[in-house]
Each structure stands twice: as structure tokens, then as C-alpha cells.
Amino acid sequence: MGTRTRKDQTKSLLNYPRAGHTGFAKWIPSVRLVGLGILTGFVLIIGLFTVGYLSTSIPEPNAAAAGQTSTVYYDDGKTVIGTFKVEDRKSVDIQDISPTMQQAAIAAEDQSFYENRGISVKGLSRAAVGVITDNYAGGGSTITQQYVKNYYLTNEKTLTRKLKEMFIAIKIDQEKSKDQIMADYLNTIFLGRKSYGVEVAAHNYFDTSAKELTVEQSALLAAMIQQPSLADPSENPERYENRFRYVLNNMAENGYITKEDAKNAQLPEVKKPRSDNERLGQAGYMMDAVRSELKNQGMTDDQIDRGGMKITSTFNRDRMRDAQDAIDTLPKMKKGMHAGLTSIDPATGEVKAFYGGPKYFERMQNNSTQDIAQAGSTFKPFALVAGLEAGYRLNDSFRGSPVTFPNNGHPWTPKNYGGASYGSVTLLKATQSSINTAYAQLNINVGPDKTRDVAVRAGLPKDTPGLDDNASNVLGTASPTTLQMASAFSTFAAEGVYRSPHFVREAVDSSGESLYKPDTKGERKFEQDIMAETTYALSQVVQSGSGSYAQNLGRPAAGKTGTSTDAYSAWFVGYTPELATAVSLFREDEEGRWQKIGSYGGRGEVTGGSFPIQVWTRYMSDALEGQPKSKFPKRPDLPDKDRPKNKSGVSKSSSNSGSSGSSGSSNKKRYSKKDKKDDEGKKDEEKKSEEDQKESDDSDDSGDSGDSGDKGKDSGSESGDFGGSEDSGSEKKKSGGDKSSGEKGNTPPKKKEPKKSKSKSSSSSKSKSSKSSTSSE
């Protein structure tokens, strides 16, 4: 025999075309060749599988699946205000998911879950055939594969994505326990109503938690996994009836429930879908305030929206309702008119309530935290504190009549409201009746920079518009927000301790670790005795001055009214030991520029002693109802000090005639309790004298000059806040007075129906120029 060549050997091995056969038969593969082909294909598949498995790593979770909804609560930590989210998702541990929910998922999606190793050969074969025939409709994936798709991959329907899903599922099954895989799966599945995960779905459909789900509820949720958007079960439950029965029967076959239980089970009652609008009412403003504070602490929007935080706010649900009720007592707002209210707990700095506006989506600008308004005479207490720190006492006398002062080389002639003239008045009387000329003299002697410094120490930001060192700053040229003014007066209420106002009590992550908790210890900014004396003076504003309407509160209160020149804004800022609250009214045009409020609610002119103090009193009455009537600290015996040098240009004789004090000279006698009694006697004499002159001593700047039809309506009207600087205009007519002002025993106005605002939206904070000629109450 001849030697066989390699070609002959190969041909013998393959035997193709088949030797010894002719025609078509020689092209039919032999059994040997078919077997060799199958073996080669199998080896190739194993090789490719091995290469694919080894080259595929577990990727980072996709951002959407890893993210969790952050929830904001009222200060009780239980009542939800709203959520921050990209998707509505909240993850829980396996022990917080009902066993029946786990069993229902297995019955619906993967009955071999506890036996397979992450993949199902039968399911993969079905999926592969579907992809090859371009008829892929899903299905066949194990729970582990579905989890991998939801958590790591996308919904792309390609063979490449399916292979990745398979390789990752095998690795995940090796690295994680079945319980962990089940928990992760149930935390990532979509179940309709924007619900990702069974915890959110349990709340959205049944108002319960995943831990408390019943058999029927679990079966319905499991029935929705394949087609969660098929229909809402509250409207078309029959669309899920067949799948619901399928799940129950499989649960019975697997021994999770009895066949009798499966037969008797009925579709559970499902609550109606909640409104998609979580920002109705004040919720939108509260959520914006919380987000802003968290971002100021360094958190990003992504952290807030996906961090799964539990955020307990400082807002009290009842106080928020009280604020709304108080604002609702106002007459219908004029076009462009807005009201702000902010209430702070002096002991913590927590903002308990505010009023942001009537319609969040029409005007996202927050009336209380973003809108600014000229402070008017509510700024005078800062000069009062500066004066007390400098050595002035409440029985020191100042000129209450119009006078011209030097002001950086330009004469300045502030005027009192209605051109009123008071003669010599004590600092206490100047505070009660908001006398501009007396406070202008005080401010010049103390130094406007000192007044500004007090305002900043109390809580106004240094960059507050209009907050400068000019002599006129005492009349309220600065334009703060109600939040800032409430914060400043909260420092007075806290006896000189400043606590930063905040909207977040604490933010914790999904594991319960605290991420942010504001410091509420505060920092002392003023001596307690100075604060006690300041509070005494401001309490006299309520007792017998421009804020007398607040006596209707029926408990100790202190505060100050304020109205800007031409009534662009009107304020009342006041406090009790428990709460400090600021209320403002202001008006703007479509460009965000201030406008005169003008006649409103039957009044010719709006002042701080009218609607603002009425709103303040209504709110505080409701907010403090049932609480003990705390007292302010006892008035101190302040030691006597040398007064600042007289810089006002007003001579001693003209400013101090008939007074026991001095506006620019030393008085070595200690300020005693006897002096306090003398103050009260002098106050009565001054009041009688001014009543004889028919001047409105207990109106801050109102009394509705020129509108006799409103006489007697404003039980808190104010005097003495018209004047400003040279350009403040001609002197107004003297007010005929408001003889009903300060009447005791009046009750707060009854609640009116809520009024709708038609103001347009403005999402960014506006900056309005301040007039140096501002005259205040």
C-alpha cells in the first residue's frame, strides 16, 4: 500500500463529500461529521460563554435606580409636606417587606427563584428564539435578571443587553444572598402611579407600608409587575383579575397559602390616585425653603432628589394654618399687593410658620423669605438699643418738634406724621408714639453706624438693601424680608441671644445617620439688661402707643409698627416670650417696582397700625391659644453712664427744657425705680397735653390723614412717621387724630373667606431700590 497523504487523512476524517456514494447522497453529512459539528459548536459556545462571563464586570448602578425619594415632614416628623425626587422611590430592608409580598413576587415571576443560579435555561432559550425571530416580547427572565436590568442596565431589547444581563445575573447570584436579591428587586420594580418599589406602591395604592401588605394586596401588586401601566386598579380592577388569580393559584401550589384562601380572595380596595400637585397651598413655598437651606449647607440637587433623606422641617402644621387664617382676614388684595408673615420660636430659631403667597404656581416668589419692603419705623428699635448701649435711658429727653440737623454737610429736616409737634419728649414717649424728630436726634448723637451695627447683630444681613450709615437709616430706609425682621425681633425676645432662623430641624439619610442638624444654642449679641429695657419700651408701644390694638392678644406683648413714605409698605413686628412674628403689606407693579398701596379695605391709607397689626394679633391669638401667659423679664435698674456727645446741632436748652434727662450731657444720678414712676407721670402729662392739641399720639403714622370717613376704624393707628429728608415732600396736614385708637377690649377681626390673588409669577428674588427719604411710623 502507498503512503497516505495529510489530505487523504483529512478527507478520511471528514469523509465529505462521502466516499463510495454518488449523486446527491454523497453530499449528505455522515453521522460522524454531524457529531463532530455539534461537538465543535458546543466547545465554541462554552468558549464564548467563558470569555463573555470573564470579560463582563458588575457595573455601577444606574443613577435613577440607585436614587431614592427624599421626604419632607412637618415638625412632628410624621406628617408629610412633600417629596424631592426624580422618581418616587424608597428602599427598605427585607425584614420590612411582608413575606406575602415576597411569595407573591415568586409566584408571579420566578417560581424557581430559590433553586436557580440567577438564570433560567428555559427562559433564556425562549428569549433567544424571540430575539432571533424578531418577535421578542420579554418574559422568561428570572427575578435576578429583572433586578439586574432595572438596577444596572437599561430596557434596550438587544441580544447584547440580554447577554450582559445573563452574565451579571450569574455573578450577582454568587455575590449576594437570595434575601438581598429579593429586597433589591422589590425596591426597584415599577408599579405604576410613579411608584418605584413596593414601599412607595404600598403607600400609593393602599395607604400602608410594605411590611403590612396583606395576601390580596401583595397578589395585586405582583400581578402588576409585568404591565404596571395597563390600567389603574382603582378605576379598572378587572384588567388585573386574571393575572391576580394566576398569582394566587401559584401561591397555593407552592404552599404559601391554601387553595381555599386562593379561591376566596378578592381584589383589594385601592385608594384613589392622589393629586400630582404636591405644591398646592403653602407646600411649594415650604419645599423651596427647605431645599434652599440644604443647598446652603453644601448639598447638591442630586443629593437632595436622590438621597432618600428623611427631612424634618421646623414648620408646625397648626401654625401654618393659623398664618393662612390670619391672612385670610384681609380684604381682597389690590392688583400687585402682597402680604408676608413669618413666625419664629426665639428659643430655637425655628421658623414655625410663614405665608409665601396665595398661589405657588402663579407666583413662586415667596412673600416672606424673598420679597423685601422698606422697614419704616420698625427700624427704630435698633436705634433704641444703640442708644441704651451708649448710655441713654428711657427718661432722657429729646426734641419732638421739627428741627433741621446737619447730615454730611447737607441739612436734614425729618418731619413727624402729619407735621405734628410734640415739644420735649422722653425716649420712652418717642418710642411709644414713633416720633421721627426725636429718633433722628438720638441716631445722630449715637452714630448711624451704631444703629446699623445693632440691626446686623440682631439678625439683618449686612447686604440688606438700603442698610447704610446715613442718619436717615433710623427711619427705615433698609428693605428687609419679613423673615429677617422676625429674626431680629426674635433676638430681642430671646434676651439678646441670636439664633439663625432655619427651616430644617434635621436631615437624616436612608440608614438614619444625621446629615444636617442646625445649631440652636445661639450666640449672645446683647446684654440681658439692655434687652429687658428694650422689651419694656416696646411693650409700652402696645400698652399705650401705636401698637395698642395688640392688647387684644390678652398677654404680654412687645412690638413696633412701621409705614414707609407714601405707604409703599406697612409693618407690624412684635413678640411674646414664645413667638416673634413679623407681618408686612406691600405693593409692586408688573416690573417689580414698589407702588403706593393707597386706599385699601375702606381706609384712605394703610399703616402698620391698621391691617398688619390686626393680622399679627389674629395669628398670635390662635398660635398661643391654650398656652400659659409667660411674662417678660423684669425691667432692670440700668446703671447711669455718660451720654454720647451731642452731635445733632440741637442745643441743650431746646432739647431738654422741662426734662430730667439730657440728650448730650452727663447725668451722674443712677436711673432708679423712682425715675420709672416719674417717667409714667410725665407720660400721662404728655398724653393729656397732646390730646388737648388734638394730635394723634397713639398713631404710628396713620390716623388716615385726609380721610375723615375712616375715623375711629383703626384701633391701632399710628402717629409721628411722616418726615424723612429734604426730598420727602411738603408737610402733610395734621391728622385729626383717631380717638378710638388704642381702645382696649377690642376683639381680633373675625375670619373672612380666603381671597384669591391674581398676581403673576416671579421666581427670582427682586431687589428694589431704597429711598433715602423714607419716612416711617
TrEMBL record:
* Domain Glycosyl transferase family, residue spans: 79-251
What UniProt keywords apply to this chain's record, in alphabetical order? Answer: Carboxypeptidase, Cell shape, Cell wall biogenesis/degradation, Glycosyltransferase, Hydrolase, Membrane, Multifunctional enzyme, Peptidoglycan synthesis, Protease, Transferase, Transmembrane, Transmembrane helix
Gene3D superfamilies according to UniProt: Biosynthetic peptidoglycan transglycosylase-like (1.10.3810.10), DD-peptidase/beta-lactamase superfamily (3.40.710.10)
The record lists the membrane-crossing segments as 33-54
Under catalytic activity, the entry for this protein gives: Preferential cleavage: (Ac)2-L-Lys-D-Ala-|-D-Ala. Also transpeptidation of peptidyl-alanyl moieties that are N-acyl substituents of D-alanine; [GlcNAc-(1->4)-Mur2Ac(oyl-L-Ala-gamma-D-Glu-L-Lys-D-Ala-D-Ala)](n)-di-trans,octa-cis-undecaprenyl diphosphate + beta-D-GlcNAc-(1->4)-Mur2Ac(oyl-L-Ala-gamma-D-Glu-L-Lys-D-Ala-D-Ala)-di-trans,octa-cis-undecaprenyl diphosphate = [GlcNAc-(1->4)-Mur2Ac(oyl-L-Ala-gamma-D-Glu-L-Lys-D-Ala-D-Ala)](n+1)-di-trans,octa-cis-undecaprenyl diphosphate + di-trans,octa-cis-undecaprenyl diphosphate + H(+)
Q: Which GO annotations describe the biological process of this protein?
A: cell wall organization; peptidoglycan biosynthetic process; proteolysis; regulation of cell shape
What SUPFAM superfamilies does this protein's entry cite?
A: beta-lactamase/transpeptidase-like (SSF56601), Lysozyme-like (SSF53955)
What GO molecular function terms would the record report?
A: penicillin binding; peptidoglycan glycosyltransferase activity; serine-type D-Ala-D-Ala carboxypeptidase activity
Feature: compositional bias, Basic and acidic residues: 634-645, 675-691, 729-742
State a GO cellular component annotated for this protein: outer membrane-bounded periplasmic space
Comp. bias (Acidic residues): 692-704
Question: What are the Penicillin-binding protein transpeptidase domain coordinates in residue numbering?
Answer: 344-578
Low complexity bias (residue ranges) = 647-666, 760-777
Residues of the region (Disordered) are 626-777
Q: Which family does it belong to?
A: In the C-terminal section; belongs to the transpeptidase family.
Protein's recorded name: Peptidoglycan glycosyltransferase
Q: What is the organism of origin for this protein?
A: Brevibacterium paucivorans
